[in-house]
Amino acid sequence: MPDISDYFPYQGYRKNQKEMLEAAASAAANNSVLLVDAPTGSGKSSVVSALLAKAAGKKIIIAVRTISQLQIFIRELDMIRIKKQRDLKFTYLIGKGNMCPLGGYGDIYRKCEGVKAFTTSLMQQRAERGSYDPSKDKVILDQIHRQDKDHPLICPYFVNSRVFVPSEEGGRRMVPSPDIRKKSETAQKKVVTPADLHSFAGRCCPYDLMLSAAKGADVLICNYYHLFNDDIREQLYVNLGCEEENVILLLDEAHNLGDVVQTIESIRIRESDIEAAASELAGLREKVRGSDAIRHILPRIAQFMDGLRRSTEVEDWFDPDIFNRIIIRGSLYSKPEEMMEDVIAIKEAVRNMSIEKGDFRETAIEKLCEFLIRLYRSSTNPAFLTVYTKDAEAVTLEVRNIDPAERLQELASKHAAMVLISGTLSPVDAYRRYYFGDMPVETISLANSFPQENRMVLGTADITTAFSKRQNAENTKAIEEYIMAFSRLPGNVAVYFPSYQLQTQFANLCASRIRNKVVYIEPRESAEANEALKEFVSLPSKRKSGIMFAVCGGKWSEGLDYRGDQMTAAMVIGLPLAPFTPVRRMVNSYFKRKFGEQGEFIAYTLPAINKSMQALGRVLRTETDRGVLILGDQRFLSPEIFAGVSPWMQKEMKRCTVSEVRALLSAWDAK
């Protein structure tokens, strides 16, 4: 069997890197699950070398969160191909929204499904008349020319991707066109970047092209949704022609998986959705069985939501059984199960009707039906909570997933092996329990491989953003002084807060006093944030420097590489715990029942620590970077929370007070 060295493309291993790769190789060979906690600079992307060495014919699928992370693995695999394995084939799939060149409105996956089905039917009709090349068929081309561009029913890119050939059984069958076959083979053997994909695909469907390339590839890189959305994953594996037990999974940035699963598994409806569904159902009385009965329960849902306005809580739990009893009282249904039969039938019927009309948007009826289905199922699954939230504008009902373990365990058990990697998966044993419960899972945690002399880690012993101290003038003044001392460091620096409220408060207190740097305050809007970030990282090239006031878990704190003077120091002010609402109390109780005393740490404290580690992790991105990292809350020094900080930071952290920090930062600056 091949060895790691047959695929590892570098001359030597980084500190602890070989140990990490051997653990990954063992997981692949033994069909097991491995969690890898490895700080930036450990060479995590080279784990794919170990998996390739032990794949034994299995396909490797790498799941990433962003296109920038996808490109890291593209570079790694290309290096393996150039230096070690000339025959290595790999490709990628990003979201269809980024790959599809077809215009029109609506859900991209639904549009693709509907348009492809209609296009296929038309091409088959024309093939029966002897037209085997759809891209040259005058009838098809004429319909493409005349179709409504906002509501397309025929995809010209799919038309150019298929031809018909005689079948061995007689008749004809549809196969990829010579053009798409040729380009697919090229995409397996040569890097086609996401930026170049559309021009490379030309008249062919980019997604279809890369999916065709993926069938014969050794490695496929894709986004999380390709794996964690059941419908998308099922269709992907059908198209790849492979079974889950013949796939090895490599999940990057694994600290995000809990949030990813919870987002996919949760659903919300607002009062406006109920109103829209009522309007849509009124037009279906004679078309879809059960639509009138469902329409008559909507006023009861609206009344239920209106009653929640009187609650004193902005977020709280509601009982799904009581909700179901209220909405069917006086209706045509005697029990929720009867209602579910109609709900499921209506959802499918409305979806099909929309696709037939070329309208690929999710209707309010479908959203309502999906909510009712998930709410009904949640009543018997403690991993889901039924929650309401309210603001000045509306009440929102939500079926919220609170525990990702069931989905992750299911994926792990179905696949040949699973390796999860992250720079902030510490303490790794807590993540093991959170993601996999009692399932047998291996773990490995590496030390920081960067030179220790290039960094200074401080923990403040005299400030906090705990609610009991937020109005304390002495505490507020000390935080200001920390920020002012910190702002005098050279290069770009960042201060991260638990919330936009605290960010704004201290930006207002400090910004006007900061003379040596350009001040940036993270906006709530993504477009504004992206433009401001571009300006911030460009400052060093203009011989300027800036300070950003940002939010832990916000737009400027994760998944970004600030190299060199683009970020020379970061300070987290406060422990970014989630607001302690009644729902949060229920979540903590659920995990206490599941894990005992460690449950609240896993459910509540661990995510806050991880947000802090992610923010600080923006600074030291290469071996030559120098930087200062400050955990600015005395709670980080408490035994429970300190134990959750990355082990290398625990070892190096210096306790300091506001009277000491100026001298420490001055001494660092003088090095």
Structure description:
This protein has 671 residues and is an alpha/beta fold. It has 29 helices and 20 strands. Strands 3-6-2-7-12-1-13 form a 7-stranded parallel sheet, with helices on both faces. Strands 16-17-15-18-19-14-20 form a 7-stranded parallel sheet, sandwiched between helices. A 4-stranded antiparallel sheet has the order 8-11-10-9, sandwiched between helices. It is globular and about 85 Å long.
Shape: globular
Backbone CA Rg: 28 Å
Mean pLDDT: 92
Q: Segments where pLDDT lies below 50 for 5+ residues?
A: none
| Biggest sheet overview | 7 strands, parallel
- What proportion strand? 15-25%
Percentage of residues in helical conformation:
40-55%
Query: What is the terminal-to-terminal distance?
Result: 50 Å
Structural class: alpha/beta
| Lateral strand order in the biggest sheet | 3-6-2-7-12-1-13
Helix count, DSSP H or I runs of 4 or more residues: 29
How many beta-strand segments?
Answer: 20
Topology (SSEs and partners):
Blueprint: H1 17-29, E1 33-37, H2 47-53, E2 59-64, H3 67-83, E3 90-93, H4 96-99, H5 108-128, H6 138-146, H7 156-159, E4 162-166, E5 172-176, H8 178-189, H9 197-201, H10 206-215, E6 219-223, H11 225-228, H12 230-240, E7 247-251, H13 257-265, E8 267-270, H14 271-282, H15 291-295, H16 298-308, E9 315-317, H17 320-328, H18 336-357, H19 364-378, E10 384-390, E11 395-401, H20 405-414, E12 417-422, H21 428-436, E13 442-445, E14 455-460, H22 473-487, E15 493-497, H23 500-510, E16 518-521, H24 526-538, E17 546-551, E18 569-573, H25 582-595, H26 598-616, E19 627-632, H27 639-642, H28 647-652, E20 654-656, H29 658-670
Parallel strand pairs: 1-12, 1-13, 2-6, 2-7, 3-6, 7-12, 14-19, 14-20, 15-17, 15-18, 16-17, 18-19
Antiparallel strand pairs: 4-5, 8-11, 9-10, 10-11
Helix pairs in contact: 1-2, 8-10, 14-16, 14-19, 16-17, 18-19, 21-26, 22-29, 25-26
